[in-house]
Design brief:
Blueprint: H1 5-24, H2 32-72, H3 75-92, H4 104-136, H5 150-169, E1 175-176, E2 182-183, H6 186-236
Antiparallel strand pairs: 1-2
Helix pairs in contact: 1-2, 1-6, 2-3, 4-5, 5-6
Length: 237
């Protein structure tokens, strides 16, 4: 039996209304209703991720290529895919306390590769673009600085100061004192203290953005509740 679009909309709207109330019940404190909603959300999300991983990663990138390598007798592809399967099995052995040491080699390889990718991403995606942006702000060949606009020069000075002072805050070089304590140079301390201001402003802007996004989601949920109630009452009254 096919469900009508109106009935499907009513069911999905009712579920959304119910789960919204369950999540909002957390305002009264941690309670079983909120936990039920969280458990269902985690379970559905885990199942969805598992299905995506199976049908879009494991099957097309491992199972199908393995079958193709076996049928075509390609020893190179078969060896590569077999090593991947062995590595996956070794990682699964970490679920057992007695066999957890077997998968350390694979985990060490994954951690090393992940660290290298994260470091390269931080350099290429954050540090180097920030350095280039700071340099380009003082590029006299840029069109914005051809007329020596004071506003652009002030903005460039703020970018340079923010970058230098923020990096100075993370300068951990220190000299030991006679009593065993550590201290940095006075200039570095002053720059680090000034860098806290830029870090505070940046974190404040990030928090404001997160708060605005959360407030937008909250307003959307309230609007959804109102629309569902008015639509439900309109259909039955």
């Amino acid at each position: 039996m096919m469900l009508s679009p109106e009935l499907i909309n009513l069911i999905t709207g009712g579920l959304g209304f119910l789960f919204t109330l369950l999540i909002f019940s957390y305002m009264l404190g941690d309670n079983p209703l909120f936990r039920i909603a969280v458990y269902i959300f985690i379970g559905v999300s885990s199942g969805y991720i598992a299905a995506i991983a199976w049908w879009q990663v494991i099957m097309p990138r491992l199972v199908y290529p393995l079958i193709s390598a076996i049928t075509s007798a390609s020893m190179l592809n078969l060896g590569v895919l077999s090593s991947i399967i062995i590595a996956a099995l070794l990682i699964l052995m970490k679920a057992s306390p007695h066999l957890t040491g077997v998968g350390r080699i694979v985990m060490a390889f994954l951690v090393g590769v992940g660290s290298a990718v994260a470091l390269a991403g931080a350099l290429i995606g954050t540090l180097i673009p920030q350095i280039l942006a700071t340099i380009n702000a003082f590029d006299t060949n840029a069109s914005s600085l051809n007329n020596l606009d004071p506003e652009m020069l002030i903005n460039a000075a703020f970018v340079l100061a923010g970058t230098a002072l923020t990096l100075a805050y993370f300068h951990f070089g220190a000299r030991p004192k006679a009593d065993g304590s550590l201290h940095r140079l006075a200039l570095i301390e002053i720059m680090a203290w000034s860098g806290r201001i830029f870090i505070g402003v940046a974190l404040g802007a990030v928090f404001a953005g997160v708060y605005a996004a959360a407030l937008t989601a909250f307003i959307e949920r309230i609007s959804s509740l109102i629309n569902f109630i008015t639509g439900f009452l309109g259909n039955f009254l």
